Amino acid sequence: MRRIGERFTLLGPGLGYLTVLMVVPLALVLSYSIFQRGRFGGLVYEPTGENFSRLFDPLYLDVVVTSVKLAGVTTLLALLLGYPTAYAITKLPPKWKTVALIALVLPFWTNFLIRTYAWIVLLSPAGLVNDALTGWGLIDEPLQLLYRQPAIVAGLLYAYLPLMVLPLYAALERMDDELLEAAANLGARPARAFLSVTFPLSLPAVITGCVFVFVPSIGNFVVPELLGGGQTAMVGNLVRDQFLKARDWPFGATLALAVVAMLVVLLMIQAWSARRLAGEKNA
What we know:
76% helix; 283 residues; 2 strands; MetI-like fold; 12 helices
């Protein structure tokens, strides 16, 4: 009993935090999803399955497809930019590694909304990007960079790129350089050594980084609203609108549950992939 009491003392705060801020809200959302919307909003406590059938409406499926596409493009670009960045940081002297990592996480010290508004200043017709292109004579008229899907991808990429770089850096930093030396001694060129040694060993970190970027990107609603001008709706915007504008709490809760279920599946795939890759490595 004493040992159980000690464990409960250590686990109690964390379990209480998870219960209050995750389990209880999820239970409330689940309960909302099975009821009907009132005539003027709110809830009518009459069970129904209509909310779940509405998920397959082509209008909402199109929003989900758009969200997956934008989040997927953001994740792919984050991987293409983040992997070389993480690799380059591992090759720096120790002092400059610290500087590079601080510079990488420095944007997180600034409010997310302020950082998003900064992109509006950069991409607006009278912004710095158009001024620079006009000044260099590359364009005659300002480009419409805002309120398009590429602007949304740029905002999401800027926001979540560090979440890709950090796990990749951690994996590459722990990698034994003698493995690359052995590959070179066996006649492998640098590109062959990277494909045969470096990338396979860092694959768990690649999967983790992709999940870290994809999950918040698909649920983000601030960036599509500000940089997309509300012209491109993502799942996060749809959930917010159902709660705050349409006042359809049951369907908003159903959408939120669908997103949570999709993200849980992604996390399960990530965990399964990590275990499988760890088993192959140990074998």
